[in-house]
Amino acid sequence: MLLFIALPIVSVVLQSMYAPHEQVVVEVENCDVFGCKKSTMVDQDATRELRDAKPLGRFVGSDIYTNRSHLATSEVAIAWRDSDGLSAFFKDIMNLPFYRAMAFTLTFTFVVTPMVLILGFFIAVAVNSIPSLLRGPAIFLSLLPLIITPLIGSLILFWMIDARGIVGALLQTLAGDPNLSLKASTSLTWVTLIVYGIWHSAPFAFVVYYAGLQTVPKDTLESAMIDGASRWEQIRYVVLPHLLPLTTFIALIQLMDNFRVFEPIMGFNASAHAVSLSYFIYDDLGGETRLLSSAAATSVLTIVGVTILLMPVLIRAWRDFGRKQGT
Amino acid sequence: MSKVADRRSPVLVLFIWAFLFLWLVIAAFPFFWTFWGSFKVEGDFFSKADWTWALFGHLTPVETGGNFTGDGYHGAWVQEEFWRAALNTVIVVVSVVAISLTFGTLAGYALSRSTYNYAFWLLILALIFRAMPPITLVSGYLLPFYQWNLWGHLPTSIIVLVAINQPFTLWMLTSFFRNIPKDLDESAMVDGCTHFQAFRHVIIPVMWPGVITTGLFSLLLAYNDFAVTAMLLSKDNQTMVPKIASFLGTTQTKGNVMFAVASVVSVTAPLFILVMFFQRQIVSGLTAGAVKG
Fold first, then answer.
1. What number of other Cβ atoms are within 10 A of residue A84's Cβ?
2. Were both Cys, which of A15, B33, B87, B238 would link to A296 (CB 3.0–4.6 Å)?
3. Helix locations, chain A, DSSP H
4. Domain B76-292 class?
């Protein structure tokens, strides 16, 4: 099991430092009656031999990391030097593919996560207050967006928001603009993807919060009531503190899940306007030319990103663990 | 709690019901809409002229003669050979669940009876695996798999899916077995059972709830996966989800969109049934992490 996690990481790190071999070029001299001409041609055999001998490619060190499609250090440096003002700098940066993917991924993660927490909490409170006979069906219907395959879920929504689909047509009528299309502009595409993300993940927060609400101590709630707390105050001072550990848990899971957002971009066919890190890798891996080393470099950068994102949580878990061992 | 104290103002009640209703519509309506529309022709499913066409089918009778049509399903399952993808999915899902549960139960039982707290490290491993986008792992697997000629086969992706899933399975089963009191197998051994007999006759009969919950989650993972199966399987061995993704490339031709719609509904239907029967287990599985983690 460790093998399966450690090996691919080693493999991507290795791959990211190698670039594919260039073709072996030989110079041949063709002599005919008009004299000799030198021409270059690809030596197929030598190329194949070289590729077989060193399948990884030639060692290039950190070149792939710093080239234009990844960290693009020289481009960033030029942009920093030449552009006047921060906004111009950011505009330049956003033209670089890696930073664009990074920007979308981070925006998606940090918008969707809090929204999911809030929406999930309110759904849980609402479901908790209806007669218990109706709760089962309500939970059933709420679970659907969560259980559905992400690609399938985003396709279903994609067809609905199509300009000819029901939601798309409704929006056109509401906005009074018959040419409105959610797929045409970058900002609207981002909004669509974020709405999808919330739709998909809110049930998770709901289910966890709902389970948490069942264990809210009744005595504390009653004593708060006797002390004259209003309904809102009861939620604020009794229920919310009780649910705080759950909130950390949901936020952690959501941060991880949203950071690797990938399928919706496929489903919504949105790669022209929004690209996430995962999609960036997928794009490199697929297609005619499999850019393995480029994908590997992005993978390494993504893993670094995940580690930074999870660092606070891991440190806390480690401390808790140490405390448990100590007692 | 007393009923009087629980009384709410009518405005609040109304607000709660309205909110809940709105959410349920948002959550579930797209599925019913797509299901209904999959029996129509494309002109009705995407009806710009009049949205009621999609409900009552204006063009469907004109084009096919009946109020509902199975053309989309016929096209997808027979013409585009979606049944092959469905078969592959069944193979992958069943193998992944069977393998990860077999190893998971044995290892989980062993780990839970050991004195050292493995659960923590398993949890950390499961967390790391969960945090890592599967596609980054896949990009690590690709090159070795090409070299060893393993790429494109079903067993390869089954193994990868099991590997990605295993830390989570192990962690869940370990914490589940911890809740089965140690006294149970100890008393069996006092009565003369060997270690294995104790497991066979005492633990296996009581372990099913935990195993079913864990199995459900590996099933969902294998069924819903796109990144691994799309990258590691050749075109003949594709499972359902990558197959649908490949439908999308050819949606421009008329009728093909309905193939995709029909196959999407076909993929959703088993999930629907799954949630219907195992709702309790899914909910308890989702919350188990929160309570124990």
1. 7
2. A15
3. 2-16, 44-53, 63-66, 73-82, 86-93, 97-128, 132-147, 150-161, 166-175, 186-214, 218-226, 231-234, 240-259, 263-267, 277-285, 292-326
4. mainly alpha
Q: What angle do CA A97, A102, A106 make, to 5 degrees?
A: 155
Q: Which two tokens stand for residue A127?
A: 């479901």
Nearest CA-CA distance, residue B274 and chain A, Å = 9
d(CA A155, CA B267): 12
In chain B, residues 97-156 whose CB comes closer than 8 Å to chain A? 117, 120, 123-125, 127-144, 147
CATH, domain A104-275, list 1.20.120.1730, 1.10.3720.10, 1.20.900.10, 3.30.1490.100:
1.10.3720.10
Contacting residues of A for B170, CB less than 8 Å apart? 1
Closest-CA residue of chain A to B261: A156
Q: Do residue A262 and residue B226 have CB atoms under 8 angstroms apart?
A: yes
For B218-277, the DSSP string reads HHHHHHH--HHHHHHB-GGG--HHHHHHHHHTTTTSTTHHHHHHHHHHHHHHHHHHHHHH
Query: Does position B97 have pLDDT exceeding 90, yes or no?
Result: yes
Tens digit of pLDDT for each residue in A176-200?
777 777 777 888 889 999 999 999 9
Q: Where do the CATH 1.10.3720.10 domains begin and end in chain B?
A: 76-292
pLDDT tens-digit map of B167-194: 888 888 887 888 888 888 888 888 888 8
Domain boundaries, chain A: 49-95, 104-275
CB of B190 within 8 Å of a chain A CB? The answer is: no
Residue of chain B whose Cα is closest to the Cα of A199: B27
Helix (H, G, I), strand (E, B) or coil at A31: strand
Q: For this complex, say whether ipTM is above 0.90.
A: no
